[in-house]
Specification:
Strand order of the largest sheet of chain A: 5-6-7-3-8-9
Radius of gyration of chain B: 19 Å
Helix content of chain A: 25-40%
Distance between the termini of chain A: 36 Å
Order of helices and strands of chain A: EEEHEEHHHEHEHEEHHHEE
Number of domains of chain B: 1
Order of helices and strands of chain B: HHHHHHHHHHH
Largest sheet of chain A: 6 strands, mixed
CATH superfamily of one domain in chain A: P-loop containing nucleotide triphosphate hydrolases
Shape of chain B: globular
Largest sheet of chain B: none
Distance between the termini of chain B: 53 Å
CATH superfamily of chain B: ABC transporter involved in vitamin B12 uptake, BtuC
Number of helices of chain B: 11
Structural class of chain A: alpha/beta
CATH topology of chain B: ABC transporter involved in vitamin B12 uptake, BtuC
Largest interface: A-B, 26 and 25 residues
CATH architecture of chain B: Orthogonal Bundle
Oligomer: heterodimer
Shape of chain A: globular
Number of helices of chain A: 9
CATH topology of one domain in chain A: Rossmann fold
Helix content of chain B: over 70%
Strand content of chain B: under 5%
CATH architecture of one domain in chain A: 3-Layer(aba) Sandwich
Structural class of chain B: mainly alpha
CATH class of chain B: Mainly Alpha
Amino acid sequence: MNSNNNILVKLNNAGFRQSEKWLVEGVSLTVEKGKIVTLIGPNGSGKSTTAKIALGIYKNIEGTVEKYTTKVGYVPQKISIDWTLPIRVYDFMLLTETIEDSAIDEALSLTGVIHLKNKNLGSLSGGEFQRVLIARAISKKPELLVLDEPVQGVDYTGEIDLYELIKKISDTLNCGILLISHDLHMVMKATDHVVCLNGHVCCSGSPIDVAKNNEYKALFGEKASQILTTYEHKHDHVHSDEGEIKKN
Amino acid sequence: MFDDFFIRALIAGIGIAFVTGPLGCFVVWRRLSYFGDTLSHSALLGVTMAYTFDLNIAISVFLISSVIALILIQLQKKTNLPGDALLGLLAHSSLAVGLVVIGFLTFIRFDIMGLLFGDILAVTTDDLLVIWTGGALILIVLKLIWKPLLASTVNYELAEAEGLNPDRAKAIFTILMAAVIAISIKMVGLLLITGMLIIPAAMARNISDSPQKMVLFSIIGGLLSVILGLYSSLEFNTSSGPSIIAAALILFILSLFKIKQSIKLKN
């Protein structure tokens, strides 16, 4: 059934329709261990929907999803929490899985919010909450990490740190990451595979291939294409099949 | 010891408070107080069923409340009416039908006040058995679904994405709601059961900073309400349900002072 046992989740021609309107259709992609797959595309192009299909949140989908792991960490794009529930950062870390205190502390330290451990979740700022969300997703040492705009609302330097952290996690935990990001610099720097969506897959491949693609240029403009291509010259390492970084 | 009606009522009330405490927290968190009202109003129909067919009241109420919950879910899927209208429709129509049926059952003398507001004289030794075994079962099941239920209360998609099956937890919780109404109807009365679920939990919310603490304080609040309420019920010869709920209200009001204090501290 699973010829390549590095595969964590595989979408075959998947799509989702809500009240007669296709949110996204015909998406095929594979997330493997140690690899980062990034979804890019304009607003409303079906990025979050694709992530939710991969996670199994949407049930009545077209096509198929093959999932080969149950250890999943998820950072949703929008999270509305009802503050009638009194909940501290610490309780939130234990929400879906019981994990050791040391693992909680480690994850909160990595994302720079260990000092908020006993704070009420409702009292956090947007950026702080986002860091807690990332910490929660990585603390359970997942095999598959799905990050939907994980650094929204985080300050600029924090953004770079967090993306580096995500890259590091993919290497050290050897987990597969499905990332949704607007940051094309980041996409170029760390991603193994880019899928460009606009209601359907408009192009996909390595970041440099996508950057050269005409449909991509039509969607994002020449400037965006230049960001990706100029980055190619700064590339100083390649990735082995195991996901390790090899310096050139 | 169980010969004394007051001791029986006290033991029954304590058993109920242990169950309504944690369940009430979820009712508050998940905004289910009108749902609780609907289920408990339909309990009257369950009571008339019990008298008509000579069944155990708790079992009969449990069955009818579960059926009403199922009907509600079906109506939500099949109509465009808003949730609160459907809840009101079911609550009042099942209460009305229950009262009409009682009118037909002329061969039985009903204590309607007792049904609506609870009656400490009505608790039998058999009821104690139903409350404590039923209550223990409810708590064990709640403990089993605690994690998925809490996670999906915080965020449904997180729970679903990380494999906790929140839909199943929600369905089981609905059954637990019907069960807690079934075991507490005699003591608290069907008009006031939701109060027993919500008021101690609301009091606990004012003084808690974590879900576990809120559950703990909610149980303690429920126990105090039952003890204070039953003693005053005995003292002033009032119905047991209103006395317990009034005691819970006093605790809630006291908890408001704690909020005032903590706001002062912050400033």
